[in-house]
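@channel sequence for tomorrow's demo:
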Amino acid sequence: MAIPVTQVGILRTLLQIERNLTNTQRDMRNNAQTWRTMAVAQSQPIATLAGFMNGAAVTYKMHLGWIPTIQANAEWPRIQALYLTMGGTAQEFIDLMTPLNAVANQLGPAPKTTYAEIITACDSIIAAINAPLSLWPE
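structure tokens (generated this afternoon):
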């Protein structure tokens, strides 16, 4: 007999979604700040920085791709209902996903052949992605 999906499992999945999105948001901003610092200092070769950025773009897309996967799951209505019970709204979810997806989709093809282009790409990310709300600095 299989263990049924309980509210404990639904809560666990909702918390995984929160961690995934919060960590992706934080990583996007922190990585952009780090890459920008390296580009300004010219402490890494351009190709190395571009490689970091291209690899991150792939990872961001993978992490954000988990959201449509869970939304297609038969348990999504229960997950969504729990989120709504907590006071969340569908619009909040869209407001979070829209800039994350935009950065993930634009980062890979962004020009990264000069330090100036890398700085411009990083500035765009930093402008679009604020730090997640946190009790302590991250």
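heads up for whoever presents: Residues 10 and 79 are 6 Å apart (CA to CA).
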